[in-house]
Specification:
heterodimer, A: mainly alpha, 3-stranded mixed β-sheet, two-stranded antiparallel ribbon, 16 helices, about 70% helix, globular, B: alpha/beta, Rossmann fold, 2 domains, 6-stranded mixed β-sheet, about 40% helix
Amino acid sequence: MAKVSVANNVSKSNRNWIRGYTIAGFFLFITYQFLLPWDGLPSGIYQTVNQWMPPSAVNESLVYVIMALGLNIVVGYAGLLDLGYVAFWAIGGYCAGWFMSEFFYFLNIHFFGSVPAGTPGIHINFWMVLIIGGFVCALFGVLIGAPTLRLKSDYLALVTLGFGEIIPQVFFNGENFFGFNISNGTKGIVVVDPSPAGFKNLGPFDAGWKLLLFLFLTAVMVFISLRLRRGRLGRAWLAVREDELAASMMGVPLMRTKLAAYAVGAFAGGLGGVAFATHVNGVYAERFNFAISIFLLAMVVLGGMGNVWGVILGAFVLSWVNGNGLSAFGRVYNDSFGTSIDFTSFTFLLFGLVLIFMMLFKREGLIPESRMKLLMHEGELDDADSDGKKQKAGK
Amino acid sequence: MANVLEAKNISVAFGGLLAVNDVSFNIPNKSIVSLIGPNGAGKTTFFNVLTGLYKPSAGNIIFGDRDITDLPPHKIASIGIARTFQNIRLFGLMTAQENLLVAMHSHLKAGITSTILRTKKQRKEESDAEDKAQSILDFAGVGKWTHEFARNLSYGDQRRLEVARALALDPKVLLLDEPTAGMNAQESQVFIEFINKLVAERDIAVMLIEHDMKVVMSLSQRVTVLDQGEKIAEGSPDEIKNNPRVIEAYLGKPKAARK
């Protein structure tokens, strides 16, 4: 009558997933860093890869993955609907813009930066800016959360929606923010410093190494998510998601618990923002729009709320379709049938359909959280039990 | 006998409706007391006041020597007043063990960094908490369901698990809201024994809301009767059984009580 331990099951499947992630990441890195630039590569393969999955598309997808993992903590773990997550992306991005460029040309601050001494502006080391961006976002998360997290879910969603509109607008019109230029407005902040990876500084043409960098940041987020999830705070998040009232009656402080989710989620937003700035080598106000918040939410829901692996898959697939997959498909389709259909204009139609079908047929997501999966397949679980095995063997 | 919890002149108003009107109630150390009354008498409202879910419009609640009237619910829970719910409110998609660990939240200390780094202290704290959870589960008779999702447990086991979860808070006072609702006579009997054992072995006082008079009369040292938000009687089970006002509140008119 040995019962299956859920905790053991989870960590075992996580180990397999971690192995899978490492192998896939290694494969991607080898492909884009060494194989693609290799002279001996048949040009057919080179063109196919470049058409369907150019290095920049992979990197952009990975930035989305980092962001989605952060949103997953807020939405998937703690069950708080956040419709303005793009704000943290923007704040993280501008942290990179402020602390790693010549934007503040009247200053001359260097701290292990990757540009020669004497260059005007603030130039702080990329890894420190990552952490600064994370903490600045976490601070904003707490500032926004403190007055609003008392609201019930729908109202909270509305406030976050407003926040997600306000912050990008502030940056968009930030050329004259009470007399200060905080964002260069629509011109954006270019160029952000190359990010030092120890042996070399990663500039615009080091997509392969940046891929490795983003894979590493994703792994950090996975690590943080899984560790927190198993600990005291993760249990409290889950309890709040399940039954807020019962949780507070069991001594879980609702405000602090939700604020922690907001802060950790926002921290990931900061990482994603800084990563995105290094990916595009600049910060552009018009990139941070409302659609991205919804897009990230769709990634979390599609992948499987609460499961980091599902979220990684959902974010990677959706951002790839949005960034490159659909247009590549359109090009191939139009070439072979002589048509001229603009496939990219159907992006939102496609996403709408995907979400509708997901809700109809696979509500728990592509790779659902183990809890949800166990729940949805209760019958199968019983079969897999030792008794079931015996019965089958006896047949 | 000293009181562990004292509620003094509690009133609760919802708009113009007085759900609880000037009720005083105390719970002596290591005692079992009951609160009964017809539906809508304000029993659960009174519970919700004691646990901080509602704030009374008048009156004070003293726990030990501390006024807890204005404390938030999670504080009240963490200093030692635990409860169960009329309709079971377990965390269904969490295991029995996790349910108890959530209740230990306020007694554990690990923060974000130590959880991420899995420090030695955090690991020790977690494994100690797991051991403690297991001993409480065993005590409550649901020890074999440690890693089972709460929602998969049978009704009786869910009731027991809810009590176990409340015990994980290390409470001085345990408030049980209709704990034997839906149980048959035999299950109720097991439950009565369980509560008696609990009070005998631990430094804890129990307050019951209950409709099953057999449970009430065999467990309680003192019974309080509420009707339409007011306390109409208080005394030993025998006194309450024969109190004409109580009979009237339950059955309408004295004649009907002749049976």
